[in-house]
Design a protein that fits this description.
Helix content: 25-40%
Order of helices and strands: EEHHHEEEHEHEH
Largest sheet: 4 strands, parallel
CATH architecture: 3-Layer(aba) Sandwich
Strand order of the largest sheet: 3-2-6-7
Structural class: alpha/beta
CATH class: Alpha Beta
Number of domains: 1
CATH topology: Uracil-DNA Glycosylase, subunit E
Number of helices: 6
Mean pLDDT: 93
Low-confidence stretches: none
Distance between the termini: 41 Å
Number of strands: 7
Strand content: 15-25%
Length: 161
């Protein structure tokens, strides 16, 4: 089944761009990043930002990320995939990352949410930007939440305060 990703969430003050692979079925159905209730993204970003994001409406979460200088998008624009697992991805078409990055004057780093995103995307990032591979926030990646938070903590240096 062909799956198509979501639009980027960025603005001219984006300092850190977090790239996933391709949203899972729950996110695509909700048309919202990290919509699966067991995905650790919002708890991790709450810990990093010291702001309770998960309890806020989705649009308020996105606004808070933008205030912090954080943008969201995905490496993959479309692909064939049954279910939500990255291992099932076929016929992958990447997003135009270079075009987006060129439009972000404040961008300092790109973080990859999971190994699939990093494997497919790090070659598309200019060498002038820091590239950070992170453990996936997906519930399919069984690392404990605190270990995921600890691995994501270095992103704090890129957050606007």
């Amino acid at each position: 089944m062909l799956k198509t990703g979501l639009a980027p969430v960025v603005d001219s003050q984006t300092r850190l761009l977090i790239l996933g692979s391709l949203p899972g079925d729950a996110s695509l159905a909700a048309q919202a990043y990290y919509a699966h209730p067991r995905n650790a993204f919002w708890p991790i970003m709450s810990a990093l930002s010291e702001t309770e994001l998960f309890a806020q409406p989705y649009e308020a979460r996105l606004s808070r990320l933008l205030e912090l200088g954080v943008g969201l998008w995905d490496v993959i624009g479309s692909a064939q995939r049954q279910g939500s697992l990255d291992q099932a991805l076929r016929d992958v078409e990447t997003n135009p990352l270079a075009t987006l990055i060129a439009s972000l004057p404040a961008l300092r780093a790109v973080a990859f949410n999971g190994q699939a995103a990093y494997r497919l995307g790090h070659r598309l990032i200019p060498p002038t930007l820091a590239c950070i591979a992170l453990p996936s926030t997906s519930p399919a990646h069984t690392l404990p939440l605190q270990a995921k938070i600890d691995a994501w903590l270095p992103l704090r240096t890129f957050l606007a305060r």
